[in-house]
Each structure stands twice: as structure tokens, then as C-alpha cells.
Design brief:
heterodimer, A: 526 residues, alpha/beta, Rossmann fold, TIM Barrel, 3 domains, 9-stranded mixed β-sheet, 6-stranded parallel β-sheet, 27 strands, 31% helix, B: 412 residues, Spore Coat Polysaccharide Biosynthesis Protein SpsA, Chain A, glycosyltransferase (chain B), transferase (chain B), membrane (chain B)
Chain lengths: 526, 412
């Protein structure tokens, strides 16, 4: 009981504080959940959903049903009740919800008692369906182009008879249409929760409706050249860069600034040709994303190993992640900056990093690219279909969700691209290794262009990297770096250029003055 | 690739330094102009001057030259003219004989023979020097028309200051309106004199003796043993030696002479190639000399080295980078606002030359300014070619151990 009161107090206090300090009062959202994980899975699904809400500018709080105290919902504009374990809703919460005036969304299962009440639409529970093979969405808006997607697994779906409500999306088991998302007055029901696949994308899109935040239709895709380190084939890398440049396509380079092999670290400074190439690409359309320092730990090989997660033992690589990250990330950023290379974002190797890692990154990087590891104890990640900002993990996420080319698998990427059409303000991207045939890349680029998606240019956004004495900033395509100790050849070259321009300009102006003076004075015959 | 980039950077830096130097010279040249433009010359002593004019097949011009010198505004008993007829095969000897009679007592003709002649201008001057009695030695080329007051101005200047080893005047182009080439040469000559001579005098108290229209102390020539006969550009070489003795060489822009410039590219090329080789000879002779290194004159040697070796290479590299960039995939990674700097450099060039022209009567014209814009891409590039050829030819002569054959500029 004491715990409940405390948690309620903390929640109330924290958003009173929020109200006191925030200029604009954000809508408040409460997630009430039964358990955090689906049975047998590692993903923290409450977290995956909470992060998805990061797409909208909201104050999001979470509380377990056990810790829920009477009357709490009334302080929120929106309530999401998540049922991951098929447990029935507690009486306490049920009573509150009946009186609640805001918008309630039930996600998952175990709601048959509540939904049969008149206040919640009097929906009749028809049992569980195990045979759904397709999910259909937006068919009322697009009657002739019903999108069909396989749902992936054979898990059950709660089947309701939706006489009163409006069905937004439904499953198909070959015989019947089984409502997936439906709405009745201020009640929304999402009969199944998945943090991946088309079902997740549909929910992400419907969230715009539920929260009444109608974002503009705008779809953006990024191209990322992956695992670029000093041992990659520079000619191939340049060819890819030149191709993208010729197509006018901005792209990212996931850069690994040091290469470890046989126990020795080779920094990219040792390979001027590589540095030159990256600098060339950087000034010809590429935005640099820092992809770790060595992309490995212990004796692993660069590009293969994990760096911020110990995959063998399924734990963080260090007990002092703050220090571990500080050492590696600072070395990496320094190695870049002293070679005139300016990363604008971070991407953890294999996307594997835990909360402490994110905490560090949030302090130093404006932007993270990739998936989010949505478990603190296990390596499992979530791919989002849109941009996420100002969440507790990161400042801004540019999600990767189209996958990568590893053999003749570009059809998978095409399929993922089709799925991207579901979300109105879809952001996403794919990555491509330099050792793959460039023709795959060309095909994918063409497909993206055919679909009318825009290519995303990271450096056009306001990004920053801020670590110790180094500051990098980008704005509208301009990248600036401040580092007091910079003495690099190239950095000084830029300064020399500026100085020379200024000197020449001053000399020219001085000469214009002299010339005018000379013309105006009487010319003597000397 | 990185190697290629370094080369490019090296060339950029060299070009920028030279451009900067050019800008500074312009400022000081102008400053010098302001200082001297209303200068009044006072002369109270008239030291005896021997005027040397080397002549080798100069029938077209020699008579006019002798007459101009004879009409110089200087006491007629205080100067003598010594024309060195260096194995002329044409009518020069006859004309000189006639003139010798006409100006008997004021003019000597020294004729060389196969033993002591035909070895170039430096040799001819040394031969003439033996017959000279003046305490000051003036030199004019056989195609010159010195202004009447030229010699007086030069003497007045050298009288005033014992630290001056030599004084030089200014030349103007007689045939500047002949064609595009002579117009370019005229512009080049004027800006060179105001920047390199005037500017350098103002900063370093140093000029390069231009081969004509200058005055040098006899005692200095005796001490250094006359002109270096191996020097291809004897005037530059002697400037370095005079300067290294601690004397100054002053630019006196009021002392004007008019001279003929090459009217076609073939002659221009030969003449300039000799100059280039002459300057490179100076670099060759003094760059590694330990005595010279402690001397102020070493700066000039270094300057020639910069111009004819470093700057030349830089121009060549930057052009190569430009051409390869257009024709092939070879590109430099060096990025930045190079175009802006290039543009500023161009503007600076135009302004520098314009300022020099604005100091001269009737030179600061619309046509001439248009020519300056054009010069950057045409005449200046020709200089690049000449310099490269000169350097190549000099190295070839050294490797094959050949003596340089003195080329006398043809007259028109």
C-alpha cells in the first residue's frame, strides 16, 4: 500500500513539476500494464510502446496494474491499458475507467469483461482466433487497394463482435474478418500487441488518430553505407559514394575509426588514403555516423564483434559503462575530428547497447541511428517506423527498419518498403556493405524513387556531438567543429584558406583604395 | 592519392605566398611613387661618366642611339661614349666610323677581334671598361633612346648617397602600339618596374640592374673584376654581387629611356629564355654558397629560386590538377573555397597591374585594363612555358657541360 501511495505521489509530483517548468503543457499519457514481457520473450514491450509514443510530443508515465491507485487515471488525458498476459483488468482500474472522461485504449488481451460493459461498447467476445493470416488496414479509405500483410506468427487474437464500433483494421483467417483495431466513442481497442511487423506499423499509424495528432504525410528513407573502416575496399567505397552523388542522393556512412586485428589497434590516421576518401565523401553528400570505436571487444575482429554489449554473457561489457563509453567514444570522436571528419550521430554496433549506454549517448549525441535495444538484460531490438524524439533513451532516433543486403535478398527490402507505406510520416532506411554488388544498391534506390519516397539527409538537420573539448554541430547542411587542440593538417588548411581569403580580400580592397587615390591625384611624369 | 594532394597543396601555398608578395610589393611601389613624384633634383657636381654601349650587328638602331646619348643633358666635357663594336658583320662598323668622326673627342669606338670578342654582352662590357676613364660607368643598350635628363637624374642620385653602388632608371617601350605582344610587354614592363624595382627598393633597398639605363661606380666594378662572362644575364648577376658588398641599388623612375621590345613571339621567347636561364644561373651560382648565405643578397637568390623553381612547379602542378580534373577521374580531395581564393587572386593581379599603369601618363586606359584581364590567361601562361623551357635548357647545358651561347635580341 505504501509503495502504491509513493508511486502515485511521485507521478503526481513529477507532472506538477513538469507543469511548473514547461512553457507548453504537454498532453499526459498513462500506460497501465499487467506484465512487461510476453511469455517467453525478452523484449520489454511496455518500453517498446512507450518509446513509440515518443513520436508524439507527450508526457508519458507508466504504472503496473498492481501498483495502480484509485483515481490516478483522472490526471491524464489518455490512458493505454496493456494486456500482455491475458489477465483480467482489476476491479479498481475498471471502476476508474468507467468514470474516466478521457480516451482509453485497450491493447492486447484479457479485456472481455470490460469490453462487454455498456460503457465500453458492449462488445461480445467470440473467443480466441488462431488462424489469422493477413491484416488489412485503410481499406475504407483505399477500397480498391486493400493492403495485405502476413502477420508472421500464429499467436492468438481476441475475436470480438464489433456491431457498434468502427473497425479501423482487421485480420483475415481466410473465412472471416477479425477486428484488429476498432473504435467506439472515446474507447479504442487494439486486440493484439506486437512490437514488430505490419501489425506494429498499423498501430503506430493509428496512434495519430487515437491521440488526435494528425501528422503530415511525408515519407523519408536513408541510405547508410555500413561498417566503413580503414580495411574496406576504398575503390568500391568511392564508387558507391560517387554513384549516390551522381544520383543526387544524400547518404550516411557508418564509420568505424579504428581497426583491431591480432591485438593491435590501427587508427584510421595511419591510412591517409582512407581518411582522404572519407573527407571527400563527407564533402560530397555523405553524413558521418559514428559506429563505435573498434566495433569489437576483447579479441574479436572489427566489424564482427559487439562493442557495447557482451553478447557471450548477455550483459554489458563493463560494470562502469559511463567510463567505458567515455573512453571509447571520446577516442573515436577525437580520431575523427583530428582528421577533419565530423560525425553527426551515433549507431551502436549491431544496435546492441543498454540503458546506461543510452544515458551516456543522450548526454553527448543529439541523434541516434538504428534500432533501440528494448531490454536492459538481453540483446533484442525494436525497429520503429517513424522518428522519435525527446525520450528518456535518446534525444532523437532516426530509425532503420528496412534491413540490409546480405545475399540476393533485396526482395525482403522491397517488402519492407511496401510495408513502409502504411505509416503516414514514415522514416526509415536500409544499410549496405561496401563488399556487396553495387547493382543491388542501384535496384533498391530505384525502387525507393519509384515509390516517391524522399531521401533523408542527416546533415540538413540540427545535430550535435558534444564530448569533452569537442563540439560538432550541423545545421542546414553546414557542419562546424570546435576543438581547441586541433592541429591537424586539414583543419589548419581550412583555417589557412579562410585567412588567405581574408588577406587577399583586404589587399584587394586596399588596392582599390590606392587605385582610386592614384587616379584622383595629378599624375606626374616620373 | 595523398601524394597528389600534397603536391596540390604545395602548389597552392606557393602561389598564395607569391601573390601575397606581389600585393605587398604593389603597396610599397605605390608608396615609393608618392614619395618621389614631386621630387626636385639638385646637381652641383658633375663626375666624369663613361657610357658603355655594346653593339653587335646594330645597323638598324645604333645611329639614333649614339645621337640620343650625345644629346644628353650633361656637360659635354664630363662624359664620354664608348661603343664596343663586337664583331659586327653588318653595316654597324661603318656607321660607327662615321659617327666617331662626327663626335671626335667625345666618343670612342672599341672594336673587338676574334680573340677578345664575340663572347656576349658581359665580355663586350669588360672590354669597353678597360678603355673607360670615368669614375662612374653608365650602360645603355644599342637600341635605347635615353631621355635627355636621364643621366643627370642618375648622377644626381648617386652623388647624394655613398651607400649607393648603382642607380637604375626606368625604361618605356617605343614600339608598344605595334601589336598585342608589344602592348603586353609594355604593361608587363611598367608593372614590373613599379612593383619589383620600386617596391623592392622601398622595402629592401634593392633593385635588379636591368641591363640598360643604369649607373655604377667604377671602383666597385674594379673590385669585383667587372662582369661575369659566364653569366647568361650579366646584369642580374652583377646586381647580386654589388648588393652582397653592402651597397644599395636604387630605382630612379625619373631617369627614363625608351627601348624596343620584341615584336614577335619567336624573338620574345629567345630573349626571355635567356633571362630565365640567367636568373637560374644566379640561383645555381649562389644558392649553395656559404658566404652568400650570411648576406642580405641571399634573399634575392632565394627569391629567384622561389620564382623559377618552386613557383614554376606550383603553376605547373595546379594546371595539371585542373586539366586532369577535367579529363580524368583523378581528383584532389582537398576541398574548400578555393574558387573564391582563385577569384580574389585574379582580382588582385588586375588591381596590382592597374595601379602600376595608373602611375604612368596615358597608360591607364580602358584598352589596357581589358588587356590586363586577358594577360592573366595568355601572357602569364607564356611566361610559364618560357620559364619551364629556360629551366630545362639550363639543366641540359649543365648536364652536357655546354657553354651557354649568348643570344642577342634582334632589332626591328
Amino acid at each position: 500500500m505504501l509503495k502504491k501511495i509513493l508511486i502515485s505521489l511521485i507521478i503526481i509530483l513529477s507532472f506538477m513539476m513538469g507543469r511548473a517548468f514547461a512553457d507548453k503543457v504537454k498532453d499526459k499519457v498513462l500506460i497501465v500494464y499487467d506484465v512487461r514481457h510476453k511469455f517467453g520473450y525478452d523484449n520489454d514491450e511496455v518500453l517498446t510502446f512507450k518509446l513509440a509514443l515518443g513520436h508524439f510530443d507527450l508526457d508519458v508515465y507508466e504504472v503496473s496494474e498492481r501498483d495502480y491507485s484509485l483515481g490516478l487515471v483522472n490526471r491524464f488525458d489518455y490512458v493505454f491499458v496493456m494486456g500482455l498476459d491475458d489477465e483480467k483488468v482489476s476491479e479498481r482500474l475498471k471502476e476508474d475507467l468507467i468514470r474516466y472522461k478521457g480516451i482509453v485504449t485497450f491493447i492486447g488481451s484479457g479485456f472481455e469483461d470490460v469490453l462487454s460493459l455498456d460503457e465500453f461498447g458492449n462488445f461480445k467476445f467470440l473467443g480466441k482466433n488462431f488462424n489469422a493470416v493477413e491484416v488489412i488496414y485503410k481499406n475504407s479509405m483505399l477500397p480498391f487497394s486493400r493492403s495485405k500483410y502476413g502477420i508472421g506468427d500464429r499467436n492468438s487474437v481476441d475475436f470480438y463482435d464489433v456491431r457498434n464500433g468502427q473497425v479501423i483494421a482487421y485480420f483475415n483467417d481466410g473465412k472471416r474478418e477479425i477486428p484488429y483495431i476498432f473504435n467506439y466513442n472515446n474507447i479504442w481497442v487494439v486486440t493484439r500487441y506486437d512490437s514488430e511487423g505490419p501489425v506494429f506499423y498499423i498501430l503506430c499509424d493509428v496512434l495519430h488518430e487515437i491521440l488526435k495528432i494528425p501528422h503530415r504525410e511525408e515519407k523519408k528513407v536513408f541510405v547508410r553505407i555500413e561498417d566503413v573502416h580503414a580495411r574496406v575496399d576504398i575503390k568500391r567505397l568511392r564508387r558507391i559514394g560517387d554513384y549516390l552523388k551522381s544520383e543526387g542522393i544524400p547518404y550516411m556512412i557508418a564509420l568505424i575509426p579504428a581497426y583491431k586485428e591480432n591485438g593491435r589497434i590501427y587508427k584510421m590516421s595511419d591510412n591517409r588514403e582512407f581518411v582522404e576518401t572519407i573527407r571527400y565523401l563527407q564533402s560530397n553528400g555523405a553524413s558521418i555516423v559514428l559506429h563505435g570505436y573498434t566495433h569489437q571487444i576483447r579479441d574479436e575482429r572489427t566489424g564482427e564483434g559487439y562493442e557495447f554489449w557482451d553478447i557471450k554473457n548477455n550483459r554489458p561489457p563493463s560494470d562502469d559503462m559511463e567510463k567505458y563509453m567515455q573512453d571509447r567514444i571520446y577516442s573515436a570522436v577525437l580520431e575523427c575530428v583530428k582528421n577533419g571528419i565530423y560525425p553527426l550521430a551515433f549507431e551502436a554496433p549491431h544496435y546492441a547497447i543498454n540503458k546506461e549506454g543510452y544515458d551516456f549517448l543522450k548526454k553527448h549525441f543529439s541523434t541516434y541511428v538504428g534500432h533501440i535495444q528494448t531490454s536492459n538484460y538481453s540483446f533484442c531490438t525494436t525497429a520503429y517506423p517513424f522518428k522519435i524524439q525527446n525520450i528518456e533513451f535518446i534525444n532523437r532516433l532516426i530509425p532503420e527498419n528496412l534491413g540490409y543486403v546480405y545475399s540476393d535478398n533485396i526482395n525482403d527490402i522491397f517488402k519492407n518498403l511496401d510495408r513502409a507505406s502504411i505509416v503516414r510520416d514514415y522514416y526509415g532506411g536500409f544499410y549496405f556493405h561496401t563488399f556487396m554488388d553495387i547493382n543491388y544498391l542501384k535496384k533498391i534506390v530505384k525502387k525507393i524513387e519509384d515509390k516517391g519516397f524522399e531521401f533523408y539527409d542527416l546533415k540538413m538537420e540540427d545535430n550535435y556531438v558534444n564530448i569533452k573539448d569537442i563540439t560538432i554541430q550541423s545545421k542546414g547542411g553546414n557542419v562546424e567543429c570546435n576543438y581547441r587542440k586541433i592541429n591537424s593538417f586539414y583543419f589548419s588548411f581550412n583555417h589557412i584558406q579562410k585567412a588567405v581569403s581574408i588577406i587577399f580580400l583586404s589587399l584587394s580592397l586596399g588596392m582599390v583604395v590606392i587605385l582610386i587615390h592614384s587616379i584622383t591625384i595629378r599624375r606626374e611624369n616620373v | 592519392m595523398i601524394f597528389y594532394d600534397r603536391f596540390f597543396l604545395f602548389s597552392l601555398y606557393s602561389i598564395w605566398i607569391m601573390l601575397f608578395y606581389g600585393g605587398i610589393l604593389t603597396f610599397f611601389g605605390y608608396k615609393y611613387y608618392l614619395e618621389v613624384r614631386r621630387k626636385k633634383f639638385k646637381i652641383d657636381q658633375f663626375p666624369f661618366v663613361s657610357i658603355l654601349v655594346p653593339a653587335h650587328n646594330e645597323e638598324k638602331v645604333i645611329e639614333e642611339t649614339v645621337r640620343s646619348i650625345m644629346e644628353l643633358n650633361y656637360p659635354i666635357d664630363r662624359f664620354e661614349l664608348i661603343v664596343i663594336d663586337d664583331l659586327s658583320m653588318d653595316n654597324t662598323s661603318f656607321i660607327l666610323g662615321k659617327l666617331e668622326d662626327e663626335f671626335a673627342g667625345r666618343m670612342k669606338v672599341v672594336r673587338t677581334n676574334k680573340e677578345n670578342g664575340g663572347r656576349g654582352k658581359a665580355n663586350a662590357l669588360n672590354v669597353g671598361l678597360k678603355h673607360a676613364v670615368g669614375e662612374l660607368i653608365a650602360v645603355y643598350d644599342a637600341d635605347n633612346r635615353p631621355d635627355k635628363r636621364a643621366l643627370m637624374y642618375l648622377v644626381a642620385e648617386i652623388n647624394k648617397d655613398d651607400t649607393l653602388g648603382a642607380v637604375i632608371g626606368k625604361f618605356r617601350t617605343i614600339n608598344k602600339n605595334k601589336n598585342l605582344l608589344t602592348r603586353f610587354i609594355n604593361i608587363e614592363g611598367l608593372s614590373f618596374q613599379w612593383m619589383a624595382q620600386g617596391g623592392r627598393w622601398r622595402i629592401f633597398n634593392l633593385c635588379t640592374i636591368p641591363g640598360t639605363n643604369f649607373l655604377v661606380r667604377r671602383c666597385i666594378l674594379d673590385k669585383i673584376g667587372g662582369w661575369d662572362e659566364k653569366a647568361i644575364a650579366e646584369d642580374t648577376e652583377i646586381s647580386i654581387r654589388i648588393y652582397s658588398m653592402g651597397f644599395k641599388i636604387k630605382f630612379v623612375p625619373q631617369a627614363v629611356t625608351y627601348e624596343q621590345e620584341p615584336e614577335n613571339l619567336r624573338v620574345w621567347f629567345k630573349q626571355r629564355k635567356r633571362w630565365v636561364k640567367g636568373n637560374i644561373y644566379v640561383v645555381y651560382k649562389y644558392l649553395l654558397s656559404k658566404d652568400m648565405r650570411k648576406n642580405r643578397a641571399y634573399a634575392d637568390v632565394l627569391y629567384f629560386f622561389l620564382v623559377y623553381v618552386i613557383f614554376l612547379a606550383a603553376i605547373f602542378i595546379s594546371d595539371l590538377v585542373f586539366i586532369l580534373g577535367i579529363l580524368t577521374d583523378i581528383k584532389v580531395y582537398t576541398t574548400g573555397n578555393l574558387l573564391l581564393i582563385w577569384f580574389l587572386a585574379y582580382i588582385m593581379f588586375v588591381l596590382e597591374v592597374s595601379i602600376s599603369l595608373s602611375l604612368e601618363k596615358e597608360e591607364f586606359t580602358f584598352n589596357n585594363i581589358m588587356l590586363i584581364f586577358l594577360m592573366y590567361f595568355t601572357y602569364c601562361k607564356l611566361w610559364g612555358i618560357v620559364s619551364a623551357q629556360g629551366l630545362y635548357s639550363f639543366i641540359k647545358d649543365r648536364v652536357l657541360n655546354r657553354e651557354h651561347k649568348w643570344y642577342k635580341t634582334e632589332r626591328f
